[in-house]
Specification:
There is one protein chain. By secondary structure, this protein is of the alpha/beta class. Helices cover about 35% and strands about 20% of the residues. It contains 14 helices and 23 strands. Helix 4 runs antiparallel to helix 7. The longest helix is centred in the N-terminal third of the chain and has 21 residues. The chain is globular and about 85 Å long.
């Protein structure tokens, strides 16, 4: 299907406004932004970015809409979100195709991302009836003490290209049922999918006769819109996904005004493989974890720490699996790996491989830039399987590309030490059928990551659990479990239903 056909089906055109609230779009005054497909290097469409005046107009709408939206009962807000999920179901295939063309994901992964938005909507519907507080025992007779949760305000959401819409939904669906409005800054590398999603959501809001400004999008550069959001006191919470460097800038700006930041930053995820592992299972998980999304997930498997006695066997099995990975147009049947997002990503991958060689490592398979036919877009590579010493500086870095470092170890304690020796702390896994090894890995002496798995890979987290990591990953938690609390304000309440006025801690203060 031609790009223009997809754009038309999703209510987009060759040139689009970059700021709006789903149904009403501004005539933006910023510079035009081209969305270039990594699949073939062609321009898919253009987005006119927001100026500062455009941004302020959107923010005024978000603030005003919050006053009305917070008054809507939470279960009713959940019903609106339910309709949003149903709308995404109707557009799943078309939106998935656009996403695939814009960021290079294979079709099943692209449609899987749309499904993740649908799942988040379903999850949020249930959450809308479970925004619960707790009753607390008061030390004073005739008093009742409890906590309750209130809507927080307009929420800022900054997303990255690799999951251009799913991560937005982790935040937006929960924020909506919490009674918040949302202002979204999408990645400049994937603006069209974001605008299409917003138009689908806007259709639901219009049918529900809800005020403008409940959901909003503002497309523009990170050093413009991103900085405006981080420093804007009208946004009590800014949720940002991206690089560690970006997260540090956002955190400094938000904390400087005493706001809240929810950060999902870099990952340098490892799998430990012990002699007790099912190697067939491990190879399948490692291959998807390292090659899926062309190595451009924050949960991508970047290190495999393998016991020395089985190192050669696992390396051979992985090499065999890598040779079978079909690379090409992500919309073609049977293709398992599409392109990197752009030529800069390809260059960074090559720089990392050269650095590895200079630091005592070697490439066991792949790493080459592909050419000829569709590969002339300059964004296609072979995934690289490497052997690396644990002390190599490049191993401590997150290179957003399909590079997998194999690192040998002797004892499990050594393996865990190597595992935790990087600044990032997002996702982790161990492959073993030994109960003691698994429990050691999951204990306080084991993985220091926010996600720890046994006999399952690092990539592909379910929405029901809280997603996020420690250390340089930022400490944020999104999606499931009790992540909803980040989008609300907690209030402790005490009611005196007695006729006395006792003070806590036995304090006596009586005026004669």
């Amino acid at each position: 299907m031609h790009v223009l056909e997809i754009l038309k089906k999703l209510n987009l055109s060759e040139e689009n406004s970059g700021a709006g609230s789903g149904t009403e779009w501004l005539e933006c005054r910023g510079a035009p932004l081209e969305s270039v497909s990594p699949v073939d290097g062609r321009v898919m469409g253009r987005v006119v970015q927001a100026s500062r005046a455009d941004y302020d107009r959107i923010m005024e709408r978000a603030v005003s809409a919050f006053q009305a939206w917070r008054q809507v009962p939470a279960p009713r807000r959940g019903q609106v979100v339910r309709r949003m999920g149903d709308a995404m179901r109707r557009y799943k295939q078309d939106l998935g195709t656009l996403l695939s063309l814009e960021v290079g994901k294979i079709r099943s992964e692209a449609e899987g991302e749309i499904q993740e938005m649908i799942d988040m909507a379903d999850f949020a519907v249930g959450q809308s009836r479970m925004l619960y507080g707790v009753t607390l025992p008061s030390e004073r007779s005739g008093h009742r003490m409890y906590e309750q949760w209130h809507p927080l305000g307009p929420i800022g959401v900054i997303t990255a290209f690799n999951f251009p819409v799913a991560v937005w939904s982790w935040n937006a669906m929960i924020a909506l049922v919490a009674g918040d409005t949302v202002v979204w800054k999408p990645s400049s590398k994937a603006p069209l999918t974001s605008l299409a999603t917003m138009k689908i959501m806007g259709g639901v809001l219009k049918e529900e006769n809800l005020p403008e400004g409940i959901l909003n999008v503002v497309a523009g550069g990170g050093q413009d819109v991103g900085e405006w959001m981080a420093s804007d006191s009208r946004l009590p919470l800014v949720s940002a996904t991206g690089s560690v460097a970006m997260g540090r800038r956002v955190a400094r700006a938000v904390s400087g005004r005493l706001g809240r930041s929810l950060l999902e930053l870099g990952g340098n995820n490892a799998i430990i493989v012990t002699p007790e592992a099912d190697l067939s299972l491990a190879v399948r998980a490692i291959t998807f974890g390292a090659v899926g999304t062309a190595g451009q997930r924050c949960t991508t498997t970047r290190r495999v720490i393998v016991q020395r006695d089985i190192f050669s066997t696992l390396a051979e099995d992985l090499t065999s699996a890598y040779r079978k990975v079909r690379i090409g147009n992500p919309l073609d049947e049977g293709v398992l790996m599409g392109p990197l997002i752009d030529g800069e990503a390809v260059a960074r991958m090559q720089e990392a491989l050269e650095a590895l060689k200079g630091q005592g490592g070697r490439v066991l398979y792949g790493g080459e830039i592909l050419t000829g036919g569709i590969f002339d877009a300059g964004t296609y590579v072979k995934p690289a399987l490497c052997q690396a010493p644990p002390s190599a500086p490049v191993v401590r870095e997150e290179t957003f590309a399909p590079i997998l470092y194999l690192i040998p170890y002797d004892t499990l304690e050594e393996a865990v030490d190597i595992h935790n020796r990087v600044p990032q702390g997002l996702s982790s896994a161990i492959f073993t059928n030994n109960l003691r090894e698994a429990e050691y890995f999951l204990s306080h002496r084991g993985s220091d990551c926010g996600i720890a798995n046994v006999n399952i890979g690092t990539s592909g987290a379910e929405i029901g659990g809280a997603f996020g990591g420690e250390k340089d990953t930022g400490g944020g938690r999104e999606a499931g479990s009790d992540a909803w609390k980040a989008y609300m304000r907690r209030q402790t309440t005490t009611i005196n239903w007695s006729g006395d006025m006792p003070l806590a801690q036995g304090v006596r203060f009586e005026v004669e």
